[in-house]
Each structure stands twice: as C-alpha cells, then as structure tokens.
Amino acid sequence: MQAMQFSAGSFSEKTLQTIACAVGGGRMWSIMELEKKISIAVLNKHKSAGEKFSMLTCYDATMAAIQQAAGVEVILVGDSLAGPVLGLPDTIGVSLDISVSLTAAVRRGAPLAYLVADMPFMTYTSPAAAVANAGRYVVEARADCVKIECDRRLIETVRAMATAGIPVMPHLGLTPQRAGQVGGYKVAGKTSAGAIDIIETARMMVEAGASALLLEAVPPEPAQMVTERVDVPVIGCGAGPGCDGFVVVTHDMIGLTAGRVPKFVKKYADLHAPMQQAFEYYVADCRSGAYPAPEHGYAMSAEELAALKEWAGK
Ligand code: KIV
Predict the structure, then answer these.
(1) Atom of ligand 1 nearest to the CA of 247
(2) pLDDT for the residue numbered 122
(3) Cα(58) to centroid of ligand 1, in Å?
(4) Ligand 1 site residues, Cβ closer than 6 angstroms
(5) 0.85 cut: is pTM over it?
(6) How far apart (Å, rounded) are the C-alpha atoms in residues 314 and 308?
(7) Residues of the chain below pLDDT 50
(8) Which of 10, 130, 187, 297 could pair with 124 as two cysteines, CB 3.0-4.6 Å apart?
(9) Residue nearest ligand 1's atom 4 by CA
C-alpha cells in the first residue's frame, strides 16, 4: 500500500493522532482528524499550489466519519444515492426532503469535510426555485455548496444562487438527470464543437459566480483546458488527470455496487463478498443456536433470578 501523502493547508502529519468523535447513537469512532475545516479557500489554495484533492460520494454519517478519517477533503451527497440507498433505477425519483436529510446526516458524520449536496431533478427549474431549495441544504443541512446539473441555459440560475450567497458547483458534461432527454448516458465533449461548448460554458458559469465546477465523462484534453482557464477548483468524474480534484461513487470504488460500474472507476476494495459472508455466518448462527450466547445478553443477579423463579412457580 502506498504511504499517505498529506498536503499543507488541509492537514499535516501532526494530525495523525487518534481522537474520539461521537457520531450517532452515542458510538465512539476513532478519527484521524483533518486539521481544520476544509473551505473553498482551502480548495482554491490546493488548486493554486497544483495539489490534487479527493472527493467521494457519501449518504450516511457512518461512511462520512470513515471518509473524513481517511482525509477525504470533499464529500458529495450525490443524487447517485438513488441506487444504493433507495433502490431506484436512476436518479429521477430522488426527493428534496430525502436528499436534505441525508446531507444533514453526512454533515454530522464529517464536520470538517467540504460538503457538497447534489440537487435532485426538478428542484431547480427556475432561479427562484433553485435559490429556495438550495437554501435548505445550506441552512438545514449545513452543506458548504450545492451542485446542479447544467448547460449554458442555466446561467441565470447559477447567477441567482451565487447572488443569494449560495456556493454553487455547476456539473457539466454528462448530466445523468437529462438522460431521458438525450437518449442515454453519453460521454460529452468528444467533438471539437462539443468540447468548445463545455469550455465556454465553464467560463460563463464562473463569471456568473460558480464557486467550483464538476466535469463528468469528458475527454481529458477539454477537461484540462477548462481546469487551466478558470480560477475555481474543477473536479473531474471520468475527466482525466488534469482536473484539480477527482470524484467517483464510493459504492463503485469499494466494490459494493452490484453489476457494471463506469469505465473510469478504479476498484480499491471488494466489500460485497465479505459483507455477504458475515450475513451468512449470522444467519447460520441464528438457525443453529450459536447466537446469541450468554456473553451477548444481560444477566440478572442470582438473588433477583431466584425471586423471579419463585414468582413464576418454578
Ligand atoms: O450523483 C453523483 O454521485 C454525482 C457524481 C457521479 C459526480 O453526480
């Protein structure tokens, strides 16, 4: 395994101390804490210094705490939660309420990460709706930024959000919420005209006030041109090595996704099999009587047990 490298500005070796952090249900977790809150200023500093950073999707407090412990700088509550959390076939059915609740949960698990919330389909159909709905993520869930799937027609929406003080990350390139309109999940910017459109749209979005950009399924060359031409962090999802940061869906990279994962995903673990095995052992123990054993229960004192038995006539 590669030694971990920590860059100045977000955290340092000094922070490799284990601290106790309470997350949900009173459980204690060992956290290798980030040194300080990751803000947009920290990400901008990374960009200026040429230091790459990581972003992963997350939909619950437990996973968020693990990701923060691992030093993940940016956490995305993606509408990709549709599959792993809700069992939906695509992202169209994700509701605003569920997404805001899960964003708040992730924030509780990872208070120091830069937290991005993905606005679901139909929640930003006008600048006014976008501002009102995005405000919920910032106020109720304490998200640092919201992401919307964009093309240049949403420029005024981005401007309205930025004007309202909401940090916004336009998502350009492949935009899964529009799959029904374009006939599937298609790589974007493969033609020179398509690539120029993405580069120009990126610049317009930044001029309108975007705090960061996300490029999905875009060839590396135009993605790098965008990254070099804008002064906000650019995060790539299948957009080559030239972006400032990189994101994939966590369930894909840890081997929990059943079925195909996108070509750009690198698998770092295969957790499906060990999880299923643990469940199988549990089922077998329940059926055989091996679980629960006396050590898994709460004993009564001999005196109280005798009194109970006497009451029961045994
Ligand atoms: O919803 C999501 O997880 C995303 C990423 C794939 C970028 O938008």
Answers:
(1) 7
(2) 98
(3) 10
(4) 57, 76, 78-80, 118, 214, 216, 237, 247, 249
(5) yes
(6) 9
(7) 1-32
(8) 130
(9) 78
Q: Return the pLDDT at 11.
A: 41
Give residue 182's pLDDT: 87
Going from the Cα of 146 to the center of ligand 1, the distance in angstroms, rounded, reads 12
Q: Say if CB 55 and CB 76 are below 8 A apart.
A: yes
Alpha helices in the chain (DSSP H): 40-49, 61-70, 96-109, 127-139, 155-163, 179-182, 192-207, 220-229, 250-253, 272-288, 302-312
The pLDDT value recorded for residue 126 is 98
What is the rounded CA–CA span in Å between residue 161 and residue 157? 6
Whether the CB-CB separation of 227 and 234 falls below 8 Å is answered with yes
pLDDT of residue 258: 87
Residue-range domain boundaries for the chain: 13-270, 277-312
Mutate to test the pocket of ligand 1, among 56, 58, 79 (most ligand atoms within 8 A of CB): 79
- Where does 91-221 show beta strands of DSSP type E? 114-118, 145-149, 168-173, 213-216
CATH class, 13-270 region: alpha beta
Structure-block tokens of residue 6: 């920590």
Q: Is 149 a catalytic residue?
A: no
